[in-house]
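Checklist before submission:
- one chain only
- standard amino acids only
- sequence pasted in full

Submission:
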Amino acid sequence: MYTNMPINHEPLFDVLSQYDIKVVSIRNESYKDKKGVWWIQTPDEYKILKKISNSEDTFKYILSAAEHLRKNGVNIPAVYKTKDGKDYVNINGTCYVLYEAVEGKNPSYNSPEDFRAIVRELAGFHAASVGFSPPDNTKPKIHLGKWVEQYTEQVEDMNRFYQTELEKSENDRIGKVIIEEFPAFYERAKQAIEGLKGKEYQDWVEKVKSRGGLCHQDFAAGNLLKNPSGKIFVLDTDSITIDIPARDIRKLLNKIMKKNGKWDLEILRKFIRIYQSENPLSFSEWTVVKFDLMFPHLFLGAMNKFYYKRDKEWSFEKYLKRINEMTALEKTITPVLENFDSIVYEEINQRKD
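Returned file contents:
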């Protein structure tokens, strides 16, 4: 057996010895201190070994959520059992899990067929999550009902950095961009938060509280695999949270439009039409999506990334580029927000006809 990386402090051999498999080789896919992914070659096939950054109680919740989705038709790679029938191995408080390795390629937003498959899979994911209730002995991730508080904290945190830039006697290029652009985004954020204080958001929260609901949190082409038969598999379920579907919808739309280079009304219309065909939302629920899109997540995220230096390897120029790109992209959403209600109304009523 061979490995392409030193396994310093990683008990991979101890972990794999607890499975009824013969290991031919180990190849590292990605690695950080708290998590890692390895390809495990056996005589018959490859398997995926993951080191989990979550606590054991949270990971048990994640596994139960994934199993609920799997039973309801979502294609999520299977978990291999250990020799003693467990879903994972716990060594010194760190969990390791062995997954089925799926063959395929990432779908493309630019392919009409793939676009349709991605949106339909997201809608199916949300529909399949209904009825989920976390087991008592687990620690679930929950964002449900917390948006107003969380979004207010996010924008006010960035407002403090903006105020600091105003107080400086001289600003670098990023500081100048923040001084020029932040006020308009701050007002947009406050408008979005006021919208989320309304009945539409609270009603949707109560609906999910009563019947269950899950969000993937990073449902994007990079976390999907299309196998040779065209089936879409959903990967990287480690961040699954209890929340309303709007969270995933907003994140996926931002990914798609970022790839497109600007917000596009026709792409939005197609997205809504496809989603509605699989998991119809009400007009008031789409209104919540609109408020979430109104909140400048991408601009504030770029600010946060810079001021907290969340990517240690990034240069000043790379941070500046990201902030400028997200500023430009966020500004193109204005026509979408202005026409959002009419597009939703047309698509909902078209389905009724």
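Reviewer check: The radius of gyration is 22 Å.
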